[in-house]
Design goal:
This protein is mainly beta. The chain has one helix and 17 strands. It has one helix spanning about 160-170; strands at about 15, 20, 45, 50, 60, 65, 85-90, 90-95, 100-105, 105-110, 130, 135, 145, 150, 180, 185, 190. The strands form eight sheets. A three-stranded antiparallel beta sheet has the order 15-16-17. A two-stranded antiparallel sheet has the order 1-2. The chain is globular, with a radius of gyration of 18 Å.
Amino acid sequence: SHCGTCDNQGDPGMLCIGGRLVDPASDPEHCGTAGNACGAGMVCNLGTCQASCDTGLTDCGGACIDLQSDPRHCGECEDSCGEEDVCGHGVCLDVCPDGTTACGRRCVDLMTDPNHCGACGVWCTSQACHHGVCVGNCPPGTVLCAGKCVDILNHPDHAEAAVARATMACAAGDFAPMHVPTGKWIAGELR
């Protein structure tokens, strides 16, 4: 609870290394554990060194960050919240929005967050979080998105990506009439 200075405890799951708080889920110098540095061209993605970040995470200098909840990168890689603020839905706030829980200064959904699955600090290593439980594979009807099992056609944070994929499939000649979150494909147009 005193990492480098008095009362500097950090968010659940953070490590204190050399008097500095690091997040093993995203720190490219301590990826997954203290001292595990990712090689050149690699990023730290949910505690594993990989070539790129999972969908829904952003590469901020080799660290795969959830810009929706990280108070050190809230909304943008370079935007950080004040010492008393939390980050929820990519915005610095006084309190977490409804449907989320404060885990340290992060507003998270305990039912889906792979770093706070079911409770603050419960980390799903190489797994996804579904209904507050770490699972090896996402159930049918969902896809893995930033360590979360998500129904992309019905989840508001992933609806834009579903429309983009449907648009690309149509442009590539793989057109099939389908329903998407913001309308229907009718005669090749989203209406």
